[in-house]
Design a protein that fits this description.
Blueprint (H helix, E strand, L loop, with lengths): L2 H25 L5 H22 L11 H24 L2 H8 L2 H12 L6 H18 L5 H28 L4 H16 L12 H27 L2 H4 L5 H14 L5 H24 L1
Length: 284
């Protein structure tokens, strides 16, 4: 099996793990979002620290990385909290597709952070994807619209975070360092909320959150492995398998059936991503 095929398998595995993460977060019940976010990141932080402790370079961080690591961690934490809130208040397939607006936000932010200029076709894909988002968000004057917009904000945070991940990668920073800094930062931000408004957890809820953290760690390791096997331009579109996995989990276990407007939005957003992927392959 060549590297590209391995990369595709790993990124589909990542999509499955991240869909499982959102499913377990939802199954944890009516716990505060910050409480869920803390446990999700605590597991990832422990895993990243373990990997770094066993590496030859240990916990060494490049001096030039600190600023980008802060912004990656800040926006990543914002994106994660908003995504978890959306998972609790929307169908998990809707929450996942709104989070998958992140690559399109990354195109916009790459212009400001990396000075990478998108061409007209890429900007068109961004515009079409946001039109698809309108179908999922369903603008209205009710609370569901607010919940959906928080989901969009989660996609924005993730997109900015991925832009700084790319910047760190170009600077030669190691993946486990990026994961550790993000996870530890998120734990520090969310930890105070464990003492303010936290709810006691049953054994079942604790297990669900630990499984969410384990699934998130599996997703992060799988997606990192995928991008070491093949460039993003060749395999990134397969990351949208997460939406399909989330829809299946939601249908089977939560009896969530997306309405026709959400399905139209899924098709438009994923279609835009597929078109952009194919366009980049043909022109590079």
């Amino acid at each position: 099996m060549n590297d590209k095929k391995q990369g595709i398998i790993y990124i589909i595995m990542a999509g499955f793990f991240f869909a499982l993460m959102t499913f377990f977060v939802r199954m944890a019940g009516d716990l505060p979002t910050m409480q869920k976010a803390f446990f999700r990141n605590a597991v990832a932080a422990i895993a990243a620290i373990f990997l770094l402790a066993r590496s030859d370079e240990g916990f060494k961080i490049k001096k030039t990385s600190w600023k980008a690591l802060f912004f990656r961690s800040f926006f990543g934490t914002m994106g994660l909290i908003c995504n978890f809130y959306a998972v609790d208040h929307l169908a998990i397939a809707d929450a996942n597709i709104l989070n998958k607006l992140s690559p399109f936000f990354a195109i916009i932010m790459s212009y400001f952070v990396l000075k990478e200029k998108a061409n007209g076709t890429e900007w068109l894909c961004v515009a079409v994807a946001f039109i698809g988002a309108v179908f999922v968000v369903k603008p209205s004057m009710d609370m569901q619209f607010v919940n959906a917009m928080i989901g969009v904000l989660g996609g924005f945070g993730a997109g900015v975070a991925y832009t700084f991940v790319r910047k760190l990668g170009k600077q030669g920073e190691r993946g486990p360092v990026i994961v550790m800094c993000f996870s530890v930062f998120s734990c520090i931000v969310t930890a105070p909320f464990l003492f303010i408004g936290a709810k006691p957890m049953s054994v079942y809820q604790t297990v669900m959150l630990l499984l969410a953290g384990a699934a998130a760690t599996g997703g992060q390791l799988s997606i990192t492995k995928a991008y070491t096997k093949a460039p993003a331009k060749e395999i990134s579109v397969f990351d949208y398998s997460q939406v399909i996995f989330a829809a299946i989990l939601g249908l089977i276990f939560l009896r969530q059936i997306p309405d026709w407007m959400s399905i139209v939005g899924y098709v438009i957003i994923i279609g835009s991503a597929v078109f952009k992927w194919n366009y980049n392959l043909r022109h590079e």
